[in-house]
Amino acid sequence: MKYLHSRNRAILREMISTDFKIRYQGSVLGYFWSLLKPLLLFAILYIIFTYIVPIGKDIEHYPVILLLGVVLWSFFSEVTTVGAGSIVASGDLIRKISIPRYLVVLASSFSAFINLLLSLIVVFTFCLFNGLFPHLSWLLLIPIVLELFAFAVGIAFFLATANVKYRDITYIWEVFLQGGFYASAIIFPISLVPADLRIWFFLNPVVQIIQDARYALVPVEGNVTIWQLVEPWFMKLIPFMIIIAVCVAGGVYFKRRSKYFAEDI
After folding, report:
1. Cα separation of the two ends of the chain
2. What's the pLDDT tens digit per position in 125-171?
3. Is the CB of residue 139 less than 8 Å from the CB of residue 215?
4. Closest by CA position to 79, among listed 167, 157, 17, 144
5. What are the E-state strand segments in the chain?
6. What is the SS3 assignment for 3?
């Protein structure tokens, strides 16, 4: 945010605050829903995949591994879903007030980031209850979370732009997210995937991000990072190259079409 003009920073802060307040306005539990949503999903998945289909029964610290995956995926889903509809939802604002259009997408993204920070507090609490205590490797979560944020925002810019003209985009993306949840190794660690299939999983950068985040938070034997799973070395760069390409493409597409938003909405 320090690279934004002072006026734009003030506008962005106000938009983030307004978005965060309006989202839970009229709700009895209010902000607590940002914590309860991933926790409820985690509870359902934990019961199913520990007692009914015992995938995680013999995995060390499985509750932490599962919860972290759910929290990171929920953040990715929220940034992209809300971001996809952000321009259309702010049509009146865009037509009436002259503001940089990208602030609309960033506001919803930073609002989701606040939710992520609150959810990570719960994750760290789970760590303590599971016998995992603060470690230097936890600091690696900072660049990993920023990587996820960049990827999600890049997609949000692309979807928000496309959704102005093609309103079916949000519905298509919701279906895509449902399939993506099971294709992102959230329920199980990637080490359980056969070696010859792992490379296909890493075409999805979210898999790399979640796997590396688990490695940083739960540095135990059997919990490995992308660098230990994929060969040859240049294949390890695929997720990062995809993220850069998505950010550049999303930004360029948004910039080219943003001047037409007011008349297309």
Report:
1. 27
2. 989 988 888 889 899 999 999 999 999 999 999 999 999 988 899 99
3. no
4. 157
5. none
6. coil
